[in-house]
Amino acid sequence: MNEFELIRTYFARQPVSRADVAEGIGDDAALLRPPHDQQLAVTSDVLVLGVHFFPDADPESLGHKALAVNLSDLAAMGAEPAWFLLNLTLPEADTLWLEMFCRGMFRLAREFNVQLVGGDTSRGPLNIAIEAHGFVPPAAALRRCGAKTGDRIYVTGTLGDAALMVKQRAGKLQLPLLALAAFSERLDRPTPRVREGIALRNIAHCAIDISDGLLADLGHILERSQVGARIFLDRIPVSETCRSHLGQAGWDTVLAGGDDYELCFTVSPGKLEALEKLQFSCRFQCIGEIEREPGIRVMDESGKPYHPRETGHDHFAEKTK
Amino acid sequence: MNEFELIRTYFARQPVSRADVAEGIGDDAALLRPPHDQQLAVTSDVLVLGVHFFPDADPESLGHKALAVNLSDLAAMGAEPAWFLLNLTLPEADTLWLEMFCRGMFRLAREFNVQLVGGDTSRGPLNIAIEAHGFVPPAAALRRCGAKTGDRIYVTGTLGDAALMVKQRAGKLQLPLLALAAFSERLDRPTPRVREGIALRNIAHCAIDISDGLLADLGHILERSQVGARIFLDRIPVSETCRSHLGQAGWDTVLAGGDDYELCFTVSPGKLEALEKLQFSCRFQCIGEIEREPGIRVMDESGKPYHPRETGHDHFAEKTK
Predict the structure, then answer these.
(1) Could A122 and B315 be called an inter-chain contact, meaning their C-beta atoms sit closer than 8 Å?
(2) Is B91 on the interface with A (CB under 8 A)?
(3) Which of A249, B57, B66, B200 could form a disulfide with B53 if both were Cys (CB 3.0 to 4.6 A apart)?
(4) CATH superfamily of the B3-136 domain
(5) Nearest CA in chain A to B217
């Protein structure tokens, strides 16, 4: 099978066919028709073997996650996903691997009606770069710079499960089998909060998706909005399974662990009623408040300041020339 | 320097600032305003260490080429470049390397007024994936499927220089110093034929950029257009330096070598006059004609059929499970 047959076989046969795609895969570029009344939101994320996943990673989950992390970025802007491109570098055209990878990727693509319209394949160390496009009405986008003093800080779903699983896989934790199943699902097949992001248009002041850890990602909002925050450990939503293993891993894993792909957003007190009326498929929980003073103040269960040792993920922090 | 400082330092300080970018680098996604009356052309291309370039490749040239190959794809659609995203995986945040890489990339970006609006960075084996966006009026795009029997086949510039340089670097040729300088410029810093692609709207029936070799890329046009072609070796434009080394490398290097990033396009006899009036910054040359019979017939200088041994580049042809 040569490169072109491979692309035809695995990528041209995809489940979504949108009316706004004039030309999809197969020419020098895709030809697309964005809606006239909306802005185009564009994002990309890379997954690299040995950095974002282990060599024995299940290809079906990888296909899911590579697309999910990009849809999560669109969700964090309040954008509706439409199209994506896949740049796939892999050591060999392993047909079973490709079949599983596509299964995971295309199942999620079908769920969110997002069409693969192009990309590139090459031989080389496994590297998956996806770029996703979505639409959002002008002025409705949930940018990071919108947080105001007095806003309530919310997160969707629960935090920490994925980070515990990363520690388990790195050999730093010993979790029971039951926890492994739940946590690996959270780490390997995150659910992008696309519907929630769209619902939060005109309600939230700003949003971000939690990929590098709550503290790091909330920190981005604070920095761009030039404000600070106070958050409360006992309000941070964690799963029962996660709570029962916090003794081993500690709150730092929840605060700084990342890979949650939940949304963190802020809402002014005047919009709380509108927020409560939203029908989310997941819970959302107020974890604190935006304050004028820069920085994040974490309060523990007894109301005392808690000082995290870790602050979030950074690919280049350890070793820089 | 951490990941965020690195991005701020090297990628946020970029030379182009377009009015159609509502939000560039720094949020979960870029927010863009495509023009109402045009289609959006989107393409991506990956450069991988050890596949597309050697470990000692000059980072400034790499920065140029990574963007150039994408602009070349837009050119082949007749699209006007606007924005791009950069997904960069590199072993370490080497500041000198990044500075040179950005210099090459941003010089070209400035030349074509194309703005970096997002991307992702990660640690890992060197891998550069760029995705470029451009605009083209509806029905004006130069698609691969438009060639008709009787069309003349043209190429811009000259072919073969880059392919000879690849052979030299692989140790298969011994070129004199003077040739090396000229050929490495062609291989490492190709000129995307953006202005030519735009000028060919409403004149050419179809176009493709020659990245995998003339035979392979013309082959894509023929396949999509369901036609064939006859081309003539003595009409294929080659530089004087290339011609003087054809004895060593042979015509196959010119026909199948790739990396030219010239445009191959077809024009109906009725449009030849309009074509001749175009002001190109490079020459363009008729190399043959579209025929009904499928396949490519190459004729040598004496009018006899020439049978190439190579047919073009394929990343996965050698080793597939």
Answers:
(1) yes
(2) no
(3) B57
(4) PurM-like, N-terminal domain (3.30.1330.10)
(5) A28
